[in-house]
Amino acid sequence: MPVSETKYIWFNGKFIEWNEAKIHVLTHTLHYGSGVFEGIRCYKTPKGPAIFRLRDHIERLFRSAKAIKIEIPYTIDTLSDAVAETVKVNNLDECYIRPIVFRGYGEMGLNPLGSPVEVAIAVWPWGAYLGEESLKRGVKVKLSPYTRIPKKAFPPNVKVTGIYVNSILAKIDAVMDGYDEALMLDENGFIAEGPGENIFIVKNEVLYTPPDDSTILLGITRDSIIKIAENLGYKVEKVNVDKDMLYNADEAFFTGTATEVAPICEVDGRRIGDGKPGKLTIKLQQEYLKIVRGENLDYEFWLTYVNR
Ligand code: PPE
């Protein structure tokens, strides 16, 4: 997806011009995928731009860093403030926010501990991740031939750059076959997640999503949807879901910061339900979009206003 350039990028504690945010070709993370990152969204609200669940994202960034032995040379507060400042200096109402912590230019070889830790925060306007129509019409999904990396192979539930090669392979395979998105299974054949999304299915008005200890990123949108659904009186079960449960579901949808809430209409050419976005899916999607846009103040505690 193309990136629309903005003015400034926060880089190791200072704002620099977008085009000046460059790194050396021997940057450790470029070679070995030894970085961690986040994806956050800021939305236009009646009280100005607001960042959705900022603290939760920055805390996850620190958990991801710890899992691969990176010590971030800033505090959670400093980085949270830096994110809000980056949105502010770029004068944006709505944007996607990408903090990345990486091992810079220093040493080569697989021991990363001698390479400096660097931090950057970029922001840019980003439309619907799975295409403009994805939220309304839904997406067509291919069950991926690529297994989601098993938990035994990497620290689970973290957002490490190198792990995304697994997602990239699944994505390429799905789009080359004409689908909108992939869905990866775990090593036991249960559904895990999309390349950049968590998944829910709905059967008889009950929501099902893979358990916290499965091989998935613990998505912040997933967590938000669980809380929103429960507050609306729906039951949510975190259980292993197999292919047949998915094919026979009434509804299915993806969640993610970039994706938001995208109905899944087809899997492997089989229609889910009647092949149209499900009723409960649309209800949750609308409720989510109201919350992030500051139109449901019961959830205002999830918003960080940029113009304080
Ligand atoms: N699983 C994966 C593998 C994942 O990358 C994401 C986010 C999620 C689940 C959903 O997590 P959350 O955003 O906290 O609800 N994927 C990011 C997009 C990756 C990309 O750059 O492309 C995102 O949505 O920001």
Measured as a percent range, the helix fraction is 25-40%
What is the number of beta strands? 17
Shape: globular
Radius of gyration: 19 Å
Order of helices and strands: EEHEEEHHEEHEHEEEEHEHEEEHE
User: How would you classify the helix and strand content by structural class?
Assistant: alpha+beta
% residues in beta strands: 25-35%
Termini separation comes to: 32 Å
Low-confidence stretches: none
Largest sheet: 9 strands, mixed
Q: How confident is the prediction overall: mean pLDDT?
A: 97
Q: Which molecules are bound besides the chains?
A: ligand PPE
What is the tally of helical segments? 8
In short:
This protein is an alpha+beta fold and about 300 residues long.
Structural summary, described in words:
With 308 residues, this protein is α+β, with helices and mostly antiparallel strands. Helix content is 26%, strand content 27%. It has eight helices and 17 strands. Helix 2 (54-67) packs across helix 3. The model has no long low-confidence stretch (mean pLDDT 97). The structure holds ligand PPE. Ligand PPE is lined by residues 39, 167, 193, 196-198, 217, 219-222, 255-259. The site of ligand PPE has 16 residues, from helix 6 and strand 14.
Defining key terms:
alpha+beta, 308 residues, 9-stranded mixed β-sheet, single chain, 8-stranded antiparallel β-sheet, globular, 27% strand
How are the SSEs placed, and which strands pair?
Layout: E1 8-11, E2 14-17, H1 28-32, E3 36-37, E4 40-45, E5 48-52, H2 54-67, H3 76-89, E6 95-103, E7 117-124, H4 134-137, E8 139-143, H5 164-176, E9 181-185, E10 191-193, E11 198-203, E12 206-209, H6 220-231, E13 236-238, H7 243-247, E14 251-256, E15 260-267, E16 270-271, H8 279-292, E17 303-305
Parallel strand pairs: 8-9, 8-15, 12-13
Antiparallel strand pairs: 1-2, 1-7, 3-6, 4-5, 4-6, 5-17, 6-7, 9-10, 11-12, 11-14, 14-15, 15-16
